Amino acid sequence: MASKKKGKKSGGGKDTVKVALSFEDFTDDDWQSKSQQDTLAWKAGPFSTPQSTRELLLLEPEEIASNLQEQLGLESVDVNATQSIILDIFSQLLWTCKENKLTVLESSAFFTLINNMIDNIREKQFSLEENMTYFRTILKTHAQLSRWDGISDMFDFMGDTVTVVTQHVKRSIFQHYKLYTQVLTTTTEAETQHQAITLTPPIALPPLIESVPASELQHYKEKA
């Protein structure tokens, strides 16, 4: 007698298969939906949306400073030390993102991280040790050393980017912390002073021929 095999029932009980995505396939909505719920990205400033962040990453090197100056509203970088430092900090940040090919998500989160660390100096007067503690806390909750698996939600900083971010913060914010503290916590305003100067016009000199004694001039004429 032949035995009968029971077939599996088909229906709504099938497991959903998740297909791994690549960054090249991402739309702006994908970047926002696949990031962590408490992501640092998309907060404010020039990096507040995937589209604006992508446009910044496509800038030519010579366009970076002028573009950021306009978007950050820094109108007095030539005479205001605070604005000049801020522009320099974010210009270096954007160049690091471009040079190391950080993703749109990583670049936006990186901007927020640096912006928060600057606010820690300006508004909260954090010491170097306090800002280092803040930085370590951010890495614990927003970074993972492994690369993205293409399925799960993305951390703000993944894989090699963790090293890039750490080295950048070390060489920029931490290495020059005393300078940044001095400049960012001191109010500097441009001051214009007007000074009236009276200039005396120069005395008109007589013709050169009049400066030669008559006898000497006659001598030269006779020789000629």
Overall mean pLDDT stands at 85
- The percent of residues in helical segments reads 40-55%
Give a quick account of the main beta sheet: strands, pairing sense, barrel closure: 2 strands, parallel
H/E topology pattern: HHHHHHEEHHH
- Report strand %: under 5%
Order of strands, widest sheet: 1-2
Count of distinct strands: 2
The rounded Rg comes to 33 Å
In DSSP terms (H or I, runs of 4 or more residues), the helix count works out at 9
Tell me the span between the first and last alpha carbons: 148 Å
Per the principal axes of the C-alpha atoms, what is the gross shape? elongated
Secondary-structure class = mainly alpha
Unreliable stretches (pLDDT < 50, length at least 5) are 1-13
Short description:
The protein is mainly α.
Structural topology:
Layout: H1 28-34, H2 50-57, H3 64-71, H4 81-99, H5 104-122, H6 128-142, E1 143-144, E2 157-158, H7 160-174, H8 177-184, H9 214-223
Parallel strand pairs: 1-2
Describe the structure.
By secondary structure, the chain is an all-alpha fold. The protein has a two-stranded parallel sheet with strand order 1-2. It has helices spanning 28-34, 50-57, 64-71, 81-99, 104-122, 128-142, 160-174, 177-184, 214-223; strands at residues 143-144, 157-158. The radius of gyration is 33 Å and the shape is elongated. Mean pLDDT is 85; it is low at 1-13. The chain is built from 9 helices and 2 strands. Helix 3 (64-71) crosses helix 4 and helix 4 (81-99) runs antiparallel to helix 5 (104-122).
